[in-house]
Amino acid sequence: xxxRRDRLPARGRARAGVLGGLSHLALAVWTALVVLPLxxxxxxxxxxxxxxxxxxxxxxxxxxxDSWGRAWSKAHIGQYxxxxxxxxxxxxxxxxxxxxxxxxxxxxxxxxxxxxxxxxFVAGMxxxxxxxxxxxxxxxxQLGLLNTHLGLVLVYIAYSLPFTIFFLAAFFxxxxxxVAEAAMIDGxxxxxxxxxxxxxxxxxxxxxxxxxxxxxxxxxxxxxxxxLARDQDKWVLTQGIANISTLAGYEADWPGLFAALxxxxxxxxxxxxxxxxQIQSGLGSGALK
Amino acid sequence: xxxxGEITRRQLLxxxxxxxxxxxxxxxxxxxxxxxxxxxxxxxxxxxxxxxxSDPANPFGVDPKKPLEVVIFGGGYGDAYAKDVHEPLYTKxxxxxTIKHTATQQIGTQLRPRFVSxxxxxxxxxxxxxxxxxxxxxxxxxxxxxxxxxDAPSADDxxxxxxxxxxxxxxxNAKINGKDLVLNxxxxxxxxxxxxxxxxxxxxxxxxxxxEFTALGETAKKEGILLFAYPGQKGPYYQLWNVxxxxxxxxxxxxxxxxxxxxxxxxxxxxMKKSVTAxxxxxxxxxxxxxxxxxxxxxxxxxxxxxxxxxxxxxxIENEMAKDKPLDFEYAIAPIPDVTSSDAMPYGAVQxxxxxxxxxxxxxxxxxxxxxxxxxxxxxxxAKGFTQKTQNLTVVNGAAExxxxxxxxxxxxxxxxxxxxxxxxxxxxxxxxxxxxDHGTEQINVVMAxxxxxxxxxxxxxxxxxxxxxxxxxxxxxxxQ
Amino acid sequence: MERLRRYGxxxxxxxVPVTLYAVFVISPYVQAFQLSLTDWNGYRSKLxxxxxxxxxxxxxxxxxxxxxxxxxxxxxVLPVATIVIAxxxxxxxxxxxxxxxxxxxxxxxxxxxxVVFFFPQVLAVAVVGVLFKAVxxxxxxxVVNGLLARFGAEPVGWLTEPGLALxxxxxxxxxxxxxxxxxxxxxxxxxxxxxxxEAAALDGAGRARLFFSITLPLLRDTVxxxxxxxxIAAFDGFALIQVLAGDKGEPDGATTVLPIQIWKTAFTYNKxxxxxxxxxALFFLTVTFAVLTLRTTRRERIEL
Lengths: 289, 481, 304
Hints:
The complex is a heterotrimer of chains A (289), B (481) and C (304).
Chain A: H1 2-7, H2 10-44, H3 49-52, H4 66-75, H5 77-108, H6 114-122, H7 129-142, H8 149-174, H9 177-185, H10 190-201, H11 203-219, H12 222-227, H13 237-251, H14 254-288
Chain B: H1 9-19, H2 25-30, E1 68-73, H3 80-93, E2 99-104, H4 107-117, E3 123-126, H5 134-139, H6 147-151, H7 169-173, E4 175-176, E5 179-180, E6 183-195, H8 196-202, H9 210-222, E7 226-228, H10 236-251, H11 254-260, H12 270-286, H13 296-304, E8 308-314, H14 317-320, E9 331-334, E10 350-360, H15 367-377, H16 380-390, E11 393-394, H17 407-419, E12 423-424, H18 429-432, H19 434-448, H20 454-470
Parallel strand pairs in B: 1-2, 1-3, 7-8, 10-12
Antiparallel strand pairs in B: 3-10, 4-5, 6-8, 6-9, 6-10, 6-11
Chain C: H1 2-35, H2 53-59, H3 62-95, H4 110-118, H5 125-135, H6 143-150, H7 165-190, H8 194-202, H9 207-234, H10 238-245, H11 258-268, H12 272-296
Helix pairs in contact in C: 1-12, 2-12, 3-7, 3-9, 4-7, 5-10, 7-9, 9-12, 11-12
Pfam families (chain A): BPD_transp_1 (PF00528)
Keywords (chain A): Cell membrane, Membrane, Transmembrane, Transmembrane helix, Transport
Family (chain A): Belongs to the binding-protein-dependent transport system permease family.
């Protein structure tokens, strides 16, 4: 391949150098756009109110760590983070299990009512969630699941199903029939065929929709607001952030707010960086099928 | 700088001790019963009244074992006053009882479904941007009648009824559809707030007329200070209040009463137009449009940095900003300057009002406990504890006695004293017709930014008021004073 | 027998998801549709039916139409801006380095860029909202205005000028979304056989030509998937707008969208019936969008 470069005319190489520079410039600009606000948040957590409302581009006068302590103890970030991790891991697992089961059946089996059930799910993508908030509260309440993580997990699963099924049904449809048929001929049951043959084959699609669901459920704000309202020790992160953001307004503790924000941002970024290879390759191959 | 009335700190403290600000000369007006005898019903009520049952220590017959649930709005006052003062009072009265305590900023989102489903907390501090529509709750019979509370013996002195221990405005503001359903717990003073120490160091005096006001604006401008600012985010209602109170100063309290009663053309009143026009001019000449994008705490921090002189707010600001207040900053209240030479109320008029709603759920598990909780809140100990925790006054007479109050509250006391009978009333459509109030908080930014004329602002508000008046689904309230 | 086994399997696999979905999603929405025909105020225990009154009122509601107009803008600008920027960046990442090294490896450090670009996507909307409130602050304490002040420019009311506010909000949405689509498109570009480019480059095709005649056509499917995702996102925007611009869609309703109006009408003014009617309208709009888009994309294979 290196030989090929030598075959390019010199003029072309020079142009490539200039364009390469320009490319880097454009990429660097977007990198700055992404990183600077985050960096600013991080720095703001060391500032005091006067500095926060002074020149935005000034560095904090000293390294004040007290706001981190305040945010940790008062905003219960650790507790909320743990709750969120519990809820989101359970609900994402549930979403993937039930979503892929339904999608598989809908995509690859002919039966009476297949289309009806499919549209029944897909129509859910068009529902604005907050419209259901009031009635949903009563449904969850009647089931005795109000203010429980289990209730929230089930609701998350239910609301993630439409998109998951929509996406995975299309994915399962693209998988070749031969392997599944061979397995069936070998005497594998439908269930075994699904779990042992189809799921591994669908792995890229599953990964990318998992990422999608984790992000969506991690970000969910309205549902926990209504369904976990009463018990503050069960809250998830978004509730905590909204709460401390309102509190910052009342108590004028802006450094505390930015410390709490940093605290929620940092671990997520770390987890993301650790898993970014899987996430990116999963997303890529999933979307291409 | 001279203080009107020139009373000594000692005298003042004593006066507050006796009146908690609200039973003094201004209190009669505050009660909205213009007679001077507002607080002078037979005060030593016989302890044999219905409410005062056999046991004056437990007039509502509370079951001492029944748990109580209390929901507090976790806003500017925090919730420590409930957790550390009021709830311990209740558990002291009924040892071993459990109290479920919740603090939230989303009162409506959290509680509305619970009211509909019948799983209601006993005591609710209905406040904040998501406060519930009390008229709608009342229509469904969700609110306990508080007349039993007002007629119950006071926790401090069984020979007195609760109604005689509180500032009379409480009783007037308790009514929804003619019934006593809401307890307003705090007393606040609203006008313009400024840094007394800055004025002292610059040798400035408070402007009494609009000409003096604008002249000071020029002076301040040269020093790089804004004459006036209000928060365009989250707090534009501070400015809505300000123009309403200014209109009342120009045209008398009737202006606000008419607006509350949805009287035809009330928003188009001359006083209203003059008030809006005057403030729009101030904003245009001495304001800064950046504040349209700042919220109340951000604006308040700017004031602490002496970037603006006057800020329209209430006496709670001192406590709200206590943590950030530098030593060379001292909050003080400034009455709204005379807008015209013929204002209905003379210079010095300030708004004094009751606020911070507490209700008891009628269909809860423990309504008697709820009433008892409010009765304990209204004890001297409960009220004093609130003032200590929040540096704000309660409606309980004499409850601030012996407390070392901060300078801002003292200045409010002096201002009320100086105002005498000239107390600006509160605008109640804020609670009655939330849609109208919300429209106002939106439109005030529009007019202050100069995107519509003051006349257009009044016309838009009038249009909305007319719509509400016609809307049969909105329960209507009226006030006479 | 096999038929029976098949049906047993199908029912077994569908039972749980269908039940969950029916209980937690469908039943609340059926109730919401029912409420849209009433004047329920959120507290009353009895429902009074008012027929289609709420929908009739909707037609004359200025704010409703303003919200619809904003949806239109969002629906157009958000996908277009995001996709254009993401395509541009991923093109630079994948092909900006030219035909150097072992083929189309992209510019130096492309892995790093891709990781960084994805950051905003992993932040909760609540976090992004609070963060950008600080970024957009209307004086020199805001990050953007602080930068402008360095160049002596007057501060701009990014969120307070009615003509600017919606664009500022859209910019944040684009900011957050771009990384996801860079990854998506990058993967798509990586899958394009390298020979195509090499052959074309040898024929003297410029980068722009390469992009428009090879990359874009081969990426068509992926771009369309992106369009659907973004279209759905454009119908929401509730959390971000509420945090950034306030719950009235300030200023002057310039940033309001239907979710904001529904929220306010239901929870602030206690007009649940009317709010539900808005929700029903929004439902039909989203359905229309979804059907129209899907009809024109390759997903029509799913027989929509």
